[in-house]
Each structure stands twice: as structure tokens, then as C-alpha cells.
Amino acid sequence: MKHRSFGWGVGFHTEASRIHWGVWRSKGRVDPEEIRYPIADFVSKGKLDEQRLLDNLRERAKKWKMR
């Protein structure tokens, strides 16, 4: 049985002052495929927009055919 995973989180880069929202998946022992988005895409009125984050997760899971 292959190990499959699907994850998400906020990433902070130490080399540059960049913050991103990342969504990734892996199949078995292969390097994970990750999609990164600027965190600003998910901010409304100075706060993280939970609905935008959730919509992004659903969209990515659908494209990757995750169940």
C-alpha cells in the first residue's frame, strides 16, 4: 500500500522576508509536489481569510483528485 499525504500550512523564508501559503501532496517516498501562493492572496481587512484558505484547499484537492 502506498503512503499518500496531503498537507497545507504557512511558510516563512529565512533568506527573504516572504510568507506563503503552501499546499502539498506526496505519494509514497517521492518528493512532495507543492504549490505556493503569496499569503496576501488570503488576507482580508488585515487578517487571514479562513474561507479563502478553505476554498483553496478544496480547489487543490479536486485538481489532485484527492478523496
Account of the 3D structure:
The chain is α+β, with helices and mostly antiparallel strands and 67 residues long. It is 21% helix and 42% strand. It has 1 helix and 5 strands; from the N terminus they run βββββα.
Estimate what percentage of residues fall within beta strands: 35-45%
Strand order of the largest sheet: 1-2-3
Helix and strand content put the structural class at alpha+beta
**Quaternary class:** single chain
Number of helices: 1
Quick structural gist:
The protein has one helix at residues 50-63; strands at 4-12, 19-27, 33-38, 43-44, 47-48.
Observed structural traits:
single chain, 67 residues, alpha+beta, 3-stranded antiparallel beta sheet, two-stranded antiparallel ribbon, 1 helix, 5 strands, 42% strand
Produce the secondary structure layout.
Blueprint: E1 4-12, E2 19-27, E3 33-38, E4 43-44, E5 47-48, H1 50-63
Antiparallel strand pairs: 1-2, 2-3, 4-5
